Amino acid sequence: MNSRVHIRPPASTDQREFTRSARASLSLHGPWTAAPSSPLAFRAWLDRMAQPGNVALLVCRRDSGQIVGVFNLTNIVLGAFRSAYLGYYAFSGHEGQGLMREGLQAVVRHAFVGLKLHRLEANIQPDNARSLGLVKACGFHQEGYSPRYLKIRGRWRDHERWAMLAS
Questions:
Q1: Phi, psi (deg, nearest 5) at residue 134
Q2: DSSP H helical segments within 81-143, as ranges?
Q3: How close are the terminal C-alpha atoms of the chain, in Å?
Q4: pTM, whole model, 2 decimals?
Q5: The domain defined by 5-122 carries CATH number 3.40.1400.10
Q6: What is the pLDDT of residues 23-54, one digit of tens each?
Q7: What is the Cα–Cα distance from 85 to 71, expressed in whole angstroms?
Q8: Interatomic CA distance for residues 80 and 43, integer angstroms
Q9: Is 102 helix (H, G, I), strand (E, B) or coil?
């Protein structure tokens, strides 16, 4: 089956569509994440993701080029570890269609083949059923539970730790 999406790095020219989509997705993102929704926040995210050890990838529809969602690979460590943290979010209107699953499959290939990583780790809040469903569908395995792991929207939140290893 041909994928309906492709992945690509973000560019400054994506700011308008990205921030509009982030603002429209506030209720979808709920307590789980806060996507950059202003021009200043978008530029700060671009700058942060341009730093060594970080890679941002947009998931875009092949038919229209529209941005479906985002995957961030952060804290990339090479050497003997070859690992990264995986963060992501979809934009409203694109959820529940399997587009992020196709995007994550492409990101996994990029991480393991292109970047030659050995491990990807996703930390997900236990009530985020859609996010948990995504990593399960793509072959991640639960490794543990981390109480009060990340501070999101002003609160320390528990997370389940899910990982995938290169074959």
A1: -65, -50
A2: 99-109, 129-137
A3: 22
A4: 0.95
A5: no
A6: 999 999 988 888 999 999 999 999 999 999 99
A7: 10
A8: 33
A9: helix
